[in-house]
Amino acid sequence: xxxxxxxxxxxxxxxxxxxxxxxxxxxxxxxxxxxxxxxxxxxxxxxxxxxxxxxxxxxxxxxxxxxxxxxxxxxxxxxxxxxxxxxxxxxxxxxxxxxxxxxxxxxxxxxxxxxx
Length: 116
Hints:
- This protein is α+β, with helices and mostly antiparallel strands.
- The chain is built from 2 helices and 5 strands.
- It has a 5-stranded antiparallel β-sheet with strand order 4-3-2-1-5, with no helix packed on it.
């Protein structure tokens, strides 16, 4: 008899809890959004260099696949920042690369970069 009462009380509480949660969810702004609302939150990424705040941060690296005319062999690029430029129908990534103890700008076709 006590088990039956316990099941009835737990079932009633569960039903009430689910009903209350669905009521709150249905009447909140979580369910009432449109694609226009989503588009206002999106901001374009500026076409600038992305510097690290801490310059002691270890260098990042990417592998560049072979592609003519500059990269006849694939190689690893170690860089601290980069920027993306659009030229005609291609995107070019300009890496601020450390090579032989000097910082140089290396232009690479975005399709040849393997981000890891």
